UniProtKB/TrEMBL annotation:
Binding partners and assembly: Interacts with CtaB.
Entry keyword Membrane: yes
TM annotation in the entry: 16-35, 99-117, 129-147, 159-180, 200-219, 265-282, 294-312, 318-337
Gene name, Swiss-Prot/TrEMBL: ctaA
Required cofactor(s): heme b
UniProt name for this protein: Heme A synthase
């Protein structure tokens, strides 16, 4: 074993803290998905970072919250006639989503400050963790920016802002997973530059696929073209149907057919790249860790694609849709694992962490 034995409990504490934060973010992404699928995201029309931590506590407060919801277009055009009990159902989804955001903020900041006070964290690790905290604070603002887009002119949030909100959440998640991996001391792998580059490409392509998936969700594009492998009657739809809007690039983001087609094609590309990456790892004898990581990633992508097809064919039932989203998080986790595994130098070796203040000198 390497490292300083006296530091092992401190390192374990930091690791478990990061594991818990990653788990909470994954849970929040799934609750956010359920909030979107139940059309609950606009049920709370105010952003109160402090006082909003409490739900309505009596009948008068519930009535006020319901009356506020009645003022926005979504109620008038989609839910007119909804009663208070029905409103409470969608309210609790959105409230739970926001409450989880507050819990994550507290669960991140307080232990982080304590670890710094005790001297558990090296300088470069502290900088990285402060950056992640800053991204988390930005995520709260982006969440409200997203909700605000659906309060006056629309019956749903902007799919652009929804995609930005989801991708930022998963970027924070990936940064925590990467940092957590860097805290694990293990022998470096001797692999080719090509294998390292394809490992990074898999992460980038996974993020692109997640972004496109958010656009599909925001446009409700999964509820149409519910056939596979054909879409709109062909494996590759006609260009006239894919690019009818002007300028042409708007179709990439606003045309439901084009967005769903992009999501499908990126899934195929991701699977092909993952298979080639695994084959390269095996052929080049990159080591058991690299080979197993590549094979697990291929298996997760196949499962994800299967769930995506089933979700599409069944017109997005909430159970399948959330399973599809959960496995997407698993795919991202495995892709980050693999890229970090192949990256080489470990930034945060356990023996490089500062000793607790009581042990210095």
């Amino acid at each position: 074993m390497t490292g300083v034995p006296a530091q092992a409990p401190q390192i374990r504490a930091v690791r478990w803290w990061l594991v818990s934060i990653a788990a909470l973010i994954a849970l929040m992404v799934l609750v956010g998905g359920a909030t979107r699928l139940t059309e609950a995201g606009l049920s709370i029309v105010e952003w109160k970072p402090v006082t909003g931590a409490l739900p309505p506590l009596d009948q008068e407060q519930w009535t006020q919250a319901f009356e506020a919801y009645k003022t926005i277009p979504q109620y008038r055009q989609m839910n007119a006639g909804m009663n208070l009990a029905e409103f409470k159902t969608i309210f609790w989804w959105e409230f739970g989503h926001r409450l989880l955001g507050r819990v994550i903020g507290i669960a991140y900041l307080l232990p982080f400050l304590w670890f710094m006070w005790r001297g558990f964290l090296a300088a470069d690790l502290k900088r990285r963790l402060w950056l992640i905290f800053g991204l988390g604070a930005l995520q709260g603002a982006v969440g409200w920016w997203m909700v605000a887009s659906g309060l006056s002119q629309r019956v749903e949030v902007s799919h652009y802002r929804l995609a930005a909100h989801l991708v930022l959440a998963l970027l924070i998640f990936a940064a925590i997973v990467w940092t957590l991996r860097r805290l694990t001391e293990r022998p470096p792998l001797s692999v080719s530059l090509r294998l390292r580059l394809t490992g990074i490409a898999l992460v980038v392509l996974t993020f692109l696929q997640l972004y496109l998936g958010a656009l599909v969700a925001g446009l409700r594009a999964g509820k149409i073209y519910n056939t596979w492998p054909a879409i709109d009657g062909a494996f590759i739809p006609s260009s006239a149907r894919l690019f009818f809007d002007v300028p042409w690039w708007r179709n990439l983001f606003d045309n439901t057919l084009a967005v769903q087609f992009e999501h499908r094609m990126t899934a195929y590309l991701l699977l092909v790249l993952a298979v080639l990456h695994a084959f390269d790892a095996i052929r080049s004898r990159a080591g058991a860790a690299a080979v197993n990581g590549a094979l697990w990633l291929v298996a997760a992508i196949i499962l994800q694609a299967t769930l995506g097809i089933l979700t599409l064919l069944n017109q997005v039932p909430i159970g399948l849709a959330l399973a599809h989203q959960a496995v997407a998080i698993a795919v991202l986790t495995l892709a980050v694992f693999q890229a970090e595994r192949l990256a080489g130098r470990q930034i945060e070796q356990p023996h490089k962490l500062a000793l607790p203040a009581a042990q210095t000198g």
